[in-house]
Amino acid sequence: MAYWRLFYHVVWATHERLALIDTPVEQLIRSVLHSKAKELGIFIHEIGMVEDHVHVVVTIPPTLSIAEVVSQLKGSSSHAVNHLSGHSGARFAWQRSYGVLTIGERSLPSVTGYVRRQKEHHARGATNDVLERIAAPMPTARGRF
To answer: Of 23-27, 98-102, 123-127, where does mean pLDDT reach its minimum?
Structure first.
């Protein structure tokens, strides 16, 4: 069996950064992310959310791509909000892009602590710009977005 220690901090936002994540939606998203993680064989260290974006600190085995894991997490959570919850607000969707950073094992406690306290950081305006980045859209083959 191969040895691996892979830690990622993934951030993604609601479509057009709309404030769609209220308390019931947050609880549903959190539950669905944990269920999907178990199904995929990944480990979620921490999840943090504010009304327009999500942070997830996760360990992903090298047999899975980050892109596929993020797609599965985003897809299952948006599906749950739109179909399983009786959600009556605007159609819930995530933006297409996401941000991801690798984390060294020694940094894991500080990053998980930061993610755990998302609401507090945003309320105080004390966010970490590097950890809050969400990837911009990638240009198409013709150089347009």
So the answer is: 123-127
* pLDDT tens per residue, range 6-65: 999 999 999 998 999 999 999 999 999 999 999 999 999 999 999 999 999 999 999 999
Backbone φ, ψ for residue 44 (5° rounding): -95, 120
List, in order of start, the domains of the chain with CATH numbers.
7-132 (3.30.70.1290)
Q: What burial class does residue 9 get, using C-beta atoms within 10 Å of its C-beta: 0-12 exposed, 13-18 middle, 19+ buried? A: buried
Cα(26)–Cα(87) distance, rounded to whole angstroms? 12
First to last CA, the chain: 42
**8 Å CB contact between 17 and 93:** no
Q: Which amino acid is at 92?
A: F
